[in-house]
Amino acid sequence: MLILANVRERWSGFLGAFVAVLVGVALITTTLVIYDSAKAKVQPRYQGTAALALPPQAVDADGSPKDRMPWSTSEAEPLVSGLEKVPGVADAVVDHSFYAQAIKDGKPVTDEGALEAGHGFSSARMAPYELVSGRAPAAADEVVVDRALGAAVGSELTVNVTQGREQFKVVGTVDGPGYYFSEQFAARQQPGVATIALIPDKGADTGAIVTAAKKVVGEHGSVVSGDGRAELQPEYIEHKRFLGVQLISAMAILGLFTTVFVVASMLVLSTGMRRREIGLLRTIGASPKQIRRMILGEAAVVGLAGSVVGCVAGVAATPLLLSILKGLDVTPPGMQITIAAWPLLVASAIGVGVSVIGAWSAGRKAAKVAPIEALLDSRSANKGMGRGRWIAGLSVLGAGVLLAVGTATSTADDRINMAIFATMTLIVAAALLAPVFVAPVGRILTAPFQRGGKAAPVLVRAELVANPRRAASLVAPVIAAVGFAVLLSGMVETMRVAYPAGEALKVAGQTIVTPDGTPGNTDEVVAANPVGKAALPTRAFVETEKARDAETAGAATVLDVLGSRDPKWNKPGQAVLGEKMAGELGLKQGQDVPVRFADGATVTLTVAEVLPDDPARGDFVVARDLVRAHDPAALTDDIFVPAGAKASDAVPGVALHDAVEFALADYNTDAKLTDSLAMMLIVIAVGYSVIAVANSMAMAAHGRRRDFGVMKSAGGTVRQLLFTSAGETTLVVAVGAALGVLVTLPPLAGMAAGLSEATSSDVGLHLNSGVIVTAVIGTLAAAVLAGIAVTSKTLKRQAA
Fold first, then answer.
1. Chain-centre distance of CA 93, in angstroms?
2. I need a surface site. Which of 63, 105, 241, 561 has the fewest CB within 10 A?
3. Which residues does the UniProt record annotate as the domain ABC3 transporter permease C-terminal (predicted)?
4. Is 572 exposed, middle or buried (0-12, 13-18, 19+ CB in 10 A)?
């Protein structure tokens, strides 16, 4: 009851923490709801199936489950025969999926799912898609298409497949997407069997079908049904889900950190202003344990209230975030918002937990308040730094420096995350050590005004020097706001310069043939450009002694294999490995290694060489003809035509670029998403911190109402007091902004150094001055307005 009474009577002191928890929980709720709504769903073309039989699953080098390992035709035949005999199964359909894309008016028809749009006609039954007109394809040059394509039955249609453009006769249309060929043609395009779909009889028992199917498949694979069929996602949908999850994960992590940071600083400030009250409680017999329990209880109540309101606000804001993500094209097609209980429960638990954790430090300090503090000013204990804060601040600073150094030496995939973690750590260090800087900086900045004879500069200087810890609590959210604005905008600007320069340097003098409206280059494009690098990628499976000894005993390791036409690597029966790949697989030069390809066939290759890692060469390189023989559906990557040779764009669906154009186009592919992500994170970090700054300044102004009364009694006018409040706030924001910039420079410098090494170009540190100025001005305006508003209101009440 005492805790509830305290919260009710001192609501203005807890308002800042309440708002901080509310905003943080709202952000976390929104991101968790979007995450839950974006989970993989059963694709429409599998809706008519009772279950799917899938081959065994391979693992990556780290042991995580990845690709399914296709059956060969001979391995699949007995399974199909057995599954067709399962009671309740009308048919067992082998689902072949491969590249197919119509060419109209000399250009590829836009289709995100073109990489897996081609199928045998039997696959249409899985949806089921019905024939709208015509008949099923019987010959290799016949095709059934989606009626939305507008191709009439009996017409000729140019379809791009892996081999290139081919003419097909349209013999039918269906009411769903895709290109449906004869089963013989589909089997030639994708010989391996990755999926066997079970089409049920009308009214059949799905559970009985699944049970019987599992007995037929046995240890040769697995059977999935219901939501388990969502495992089969087109690559482009899975890529969008991955990008969306990465974006909202970054938002959630940043929101969580900012919430913890802001709530902790606010509760420390609020508790520090109550030392006289706590001293009085100690005088009447309250024990340190009771004081600590009271502080934590108040925080829990505030956290619970903020969490409840935050959950409601988060759910209400979810459509807005979904609209933004759809605008960035990082959501699966047709994604709808679904509200489940777990995102709300998790967000609420985080809100309450963050409040209690944030109050722990404040409660620990409050428990040490002596009864004599009841007779002293609340600010008397706000001087200097305690031993514990010195130790914590220097320890965190050391960790931040190590992370900043690690940013320069980390891999490209880890560099951004390392820079963010380094900045977070240094922001915490700066907040802990801020009392050390506030007083000296306050003296320096107010020194020029000391000879003017005005009282305001003297009062501002005295306040900062006498109460550095209170000022440090006000500085903390400013450090976070400016620090994240500098970091995120600086990362984008630095990468904008580094990556195109590095890529252009790697391919200088070459002409690059890139896909334009297609997911890759066909063999026709490769034949038109017979000179230059034309890597043919495929996914293959290796089972070595090292893999069998791992926790996933017996599971093959899936890896990216490149087929090369470079005479140095294009040698039958041989493979060239990078040092890292060879180490992961436990292979050495001269060893034989069995490699299973996409058609289910296993080929034994000899490790001809183990060379230093080179992304331009690839980690596992074999002869191009070997990949083409075992993966007829694979498409070729960009073709790099050297200087002196002529590149051709005569085949539809390709574009030619010089080194600079290629580098810029390659960077701009993800630049829009990168810029949008950075801007969203900046808005979240700065906006959240600005709210915290305004709340902190309002709390501080409210806590100094006695000071204002004394200064007014001594002859101070309202204008002078408001000017003094604004001056102190400006000085605090200036200190926070300076520290915010300083803590981000080491991680950004480390990132620039790492990019210089990775791109073999001179990459300097680049900052976005516009974003930094906007962040500082926005923070300053919010702080000054909040301080003046509360000060003015307090003075009016005192006058009344």
1. 37
2. 105
3. 250-370, 680-798
4. exposed
Bridge-partner residues for 142, per DSSP? 169
Under a CB-based contact definition with an 8 Å cutoff, are residues 468 and 383 in contact? yes
Rounded distance between C-alpha atoms, residue 145 and residue 135, angstroms: 11
Read off the pLDDT of residues 561-592 as tens digits, 9 standing for 90 and up: 999 998 888 889 999 999 999 988 889 999 99
- 544: three-class secondary structure by DSSP: coil
Separation of alpha carbons 214 and 84, rounded Å: 13
Between CA 265 and CA 20 the distance in angstroms is 11
Other C-beta atoms closer than 10 Å to the C-beta of 64 total 8
Q: How far apart are CA 659 and CA 640, in angstroms?
A: 10
**Tokens in use for 2?**
């005492």
Angle at 764 between CA 434 and CA 247, to 5 degrees: 70
Rounded-to-integer distance, Cα 685 and Cα 481, Å = 6
Cα gap 421→400, rounded to integer Å: 8
Residue spans of beta strands (DSSP E) within 341-493: none
- pTM for this one? 0.76
Helix axes 275-283, 288-327, angle to 10 degrees: 150
Rounded Cα distance between 426 and 265, Å, is 15
pLDDT tens for 640-691 read 999 888 999 999 999 998 877 777 776 666 666 677 777 777 777 777 667 7
Preceding amide of 128 cis, omega within 30: yes
Q: Answer yes or no: are the C-beta atoms of 256 and 28 closer than 8 Å.
A: yes
Q: Which residue has the tokens 């007083």?
A: 439
Locus of tokens 């500069």: 457
Residue listed under structure tokens 């320890």: 395
509: its two tokens: 């003098």
The CB-based long-range contact list for 454-460 (8 Å cut-off, 24+ gap) reads 455/716, 455/720, 455/724, 456/720, 456/723, 456/724, 456/727, 457/727, 459/711, 459/724, 459/728, 460/724, 460/727, 460/728, 460/731
- Amino acid (one-letter) located at 325: L
Q: What's the token pair of residue 284?
A: 């009447």
Q: How many CA atoms lie within 13 A of 544 on its CB side?
A: 21
Q: Tens digits of per-residue pLDDT, 246-296? A: 778 877 877 777 777 677 766 666 666 666 666 666 676 667 777 777 878
Distance separating alpha carbons of residues 378 and 360, to the nearest angstrom:
20
pLDDT in tens, 124-167: 999 999 999 999 999 999 999 999 999 999 999 999 999 999 99
